[in-house]
C-alpha cells in the first residue's frame, strides 16, 4: 500500500526511507518493490488502499484509470489501427498492404516470438510484435467482463496467418489503455513499413530508435494536437482523428499520454532509449523523410 509520508516507517537509523516515481511523484517504501504490492502494468503506479486494481489474469494488474480506456479485443482495436494508418498516410508513409492487427494475450505473444525464424531484438517485456512468418495466433475475439477484481469470460480464436507480403500480422498485447495500445501499434507498424519498403539489416539502435520516434510523434499528436509540427504535406486533422472521433481525450487520458511520452524519452536501454534520442535529434534537424532516406543509404542516422 502507499502511505502518507508521516506513516512511512523509519529504518534502523531512525530515518525515513522513501522512493519516488520520477513521473507520478508517487512516494512509497522501498519494501514495496519486493513485496506483492500490485503495480499497474501500464502506468507503473502502485496499488494503494484507496485505489484497487484489476488482475488481467496473466500476472499483470491494471489500475482503474488505465482500465477506463483499455483496448480489450481485436475488434476494439480496429478504429485505432485505422487512425494510425491515416497518421502514417498524413506523413507520406502510406501502407498499401492489408496487414491484420490482432490483440493477444501475453502467452500468445510469447509463443509468436518463438515461431518467428528471424531473431528479434525486443524489450524484456514485449508488448507488440511485427510478424513475417505464417503462424497460427490465438487472438482475442471477445473482450472479458470485469468480475470481482478480475476479468472473466474472454473468448479466443486460433487465427491462421497467410503470407501475402513481408508482414503477416501485427500483434499487440491486450488490456492496455488506448494511448499505450496506439503507441505500441505505431511502433510495430513502423517495423512493418521498414520491412515493406526494403530496409534491411538495420542495427537495433537505428531500427528501434526510428520506430520509437513514430510512436512518440503519434502520442504527441494525440496528447497535444495543437503543438505538433506536422509535415507540410500532411492532410488536415488526420493525426488527431482518433481522439476527435471519440470526441474527447480526458484529463486522465492526457496525463497518461504524457507519462508514455516521458517513458519513451527517458528509456535507459541503448536500443530503445539511446536509439530514440539519436533518431529524434536527427528528425528534428533534418525532418523525417530525409532521416529515413539517409538510413536507407547508410544504415545510420544523419548527424
Ligand atoms: Zn495504470
Ligand atoms: Zn521494436
UniProtKB/TrEMBL annotation:
InterPro entries found in the cross-reference section: DA1-like (IPR045218), DA1-like_dom (IPR022087)
Domain Protein DA1-like residues, every copy: 90-298
Coiled-coil region(s): none
Domain of life: Eukaryota
GO molecular function: ubiquitin binding
Signal peptide: none
The protein's name in its UniProt record: Protein DA1-like domain-containing protein
Organism of derivation: Opuntia streptacantha
PANTHER family to which the protein is assigned, alphabetical: PROTEIN DA1-RELATED 2
